[in-house]
Amino acid sequence: MRTVTYVKHKTVEIVHKPIPAIGSDEVLVKIAGAGLCHSDLHLIEMGDDSPLVGSTLGHEGAGYVHEVGTNVTKWKVGDPVLVSLVLSCGECRECLAGRDSQCHVASPRGALAPAAPGIGTPGCMAEYIAVKSYHLDPLGDLDPADAAPLADAALTPMHAINTVRDRLTGDATVVLIGIGGLGHMGLQIVAATSAARIIAVDTDPEKLKYAESHGALGILSNKEAAARILEETEGRGADVVIDFVGVQPSVNLAVSVIAQGGAIRFVGLGGGSFAYTAGIVELPWGVNIERPYGGNRSDQREALALAQVGKIHVDVVHYPLDDASRAFEDLHAGKIHGRIVLVP
Ligand code: NAD
Ligand code: ZN
User: Fold this and answer.
1) What is the pLDDT of residue 280?
2) Residues in contact with 167: Cβ distance below 8 Å, sequence separation at least 6, in sequence order
3) Most buried residue among 8, 248, 258, 342 by CB atoms closer than 10 A?
4) Are 244 and 185 in contact (CB under 8 A)?
C-alpha cells in the first residue's frame, strides 16, 4: 500500500509498504482521509536521525472498517470510523479517572508525545491502518474524508476549552490566537458551547474575516494587539487565552493580556518561551497555565456530537495522498484555510 513516509529532514515521500496484518483485537481500517496537522511539519523538522525517520505519518485518520479481528464484536465491515489520536490503555489510573490523554502506558513521563498513530506507531497517511478496536469511534452520518480532522484539530481545542469551562461565563472574554486548523475548530467550539465573547487573533487577515463571520472580533497579530485587547476588556484583560501557535509573539501576547485569575492554555508548539520569576512579577495573581495534550475520549465524543448535529464543521481542503509533498509545502507556506485532508 502507499504511505506518506518521513524519509529525511523536511522530506516526505510516497513509500510502498505491506498492508498490515491485524491481531485478534484489531480492526483494519481503509483510510478515506488523513488530516495534515502543523505538528507533522514540526515532526519532519527533527532531522535525519530522528527515531521517526522511516515511519508513516498521520495522526488524524478516518475511514471504513475493512476487516475485523477474531475477537472483535463491536464493529462490522463498512462501518465509518474515526481513529483515536491518543492510543490510551483504558485501564491505568489516569484513564479510569477520565484523563486518558495522560495515560500512564501511552504517555510515560518524558515521552516525546503520547503514543499516537503517526507519532511512533504507523500512521493514517496510508491506504490502511491496523488499530485496536478500542481506539475507534463511530462517525455516524459524517463522511470520513471530511471528518478525519476531528481526531485532533477538533479534539485538542475541545479538550483545552473543557479545561477552562468554568471560566467561560456569558460575561467572559476568550482570546484565541491562531485561527488555523486547530483554531478554526476552537472558535466554533467556543461559539457552540458558551456565551463568552471571542476575540480571534491571527497574522492573516483572511483568517480574521472567517472568525468575524463566526461572531468573533478579529484583531491582527501585531505590536498593537495587546493594547487593543486590554482596551476591549476595559483594562482587565482576557479571562482565557488559548494560544494555538506558540511562537514568541503569540506567547508574549498571551502573557501580556491575561486577566488576574485568568487561564492560559499553550497548545501551539512554535518554540516561544516566557520567563517566570517567583516574586513580584508582571504575571497577574491567580493565573492558571496549562500545556494540554490532545484530549480525552470524552472530549472526542463531545466534538463528534457537535459535528454530527452541524454545530461545528471542519473546513477541508482535499489533496490526493500522492501529492503529500505539495500539501506539506502549502501548509508550511501558510496557504491553507482550515485543514488539508489527504485522500488515498
Ligand atoms: P496551522 O498551520 O493550521 O495554523 C496556524 C495558524 O496560526 C495560522 O492561521 C497562522 O496564520 C497563524 N499564525 C501564525 N503566526 C501567528 C502569530 N504570530 N500570531 C497569530 N497567529 C499566527 O496549524 P495547526 O495545525 O492549527 O497547529 C497549531 C499548533 O498547534 C502547531 O504548533 C501544532 O504543532 C500544535 N498542536 C498541538 C497539539 C497539542 O496537543 N498540544 C495538538 C495539535 C497541534
Ligand atoms: Zn496534530
Assistant:
1) 67
2) 239, 240, 262, 263
3) 342
4) no
The angle that helices 181-193 and 205-213 make with each other, rounded to 10 degrees, is: 20
Same domain, 271 and 329: no
- Name the residue at shortest CA distance from atom 7 of ligand 1: 178
Within 13 A of 102's CA, how many CA atoms are on the CB side? 10
What residues make up the domain containing 272? 164-290
d(CA 313, CA 191): 12
pLDDT for 282 equals: 77
Last residue within a domain, chosen from 275, 290, 305: 290
Residues 135 and 260 in one domain: no
Ligand 1 atom, smallest distance to 113 CA: 40
Query: In this structure, are residues 65 and 81 in contact, taking their beta carbons and an 8 Å threshold?
Result: yes
Closest atom of ligand 1 relative to the 267 alpha carbon: 41
Same domain, 146 and 179: no
pLDDT digits (tens, 9 = 90+) for 97-126: 999 999 999 988 888 888 999 998 999 999
- Does residue 308 share a domain with residue 225? no
Instruction: Tell me the backbone φ, ψ of residue 68, rounded to 5 degrees.
Output: -120, 145
Q: Mention every residue, 6+ apart, whose C-beta is less than 8 A from residue 330.
A: 336, 340
12 beta partners: 6
- The CA 41 to ligand 1 mean position distance, Å, reads 11
Distance CA 178, CA 312 (A): 17
The count of other CB atoms within 10 Å of the CB of residue 323 is: 16
Between the CA of 268 and the centroid of ligand 1 the distance, in Å, is 5
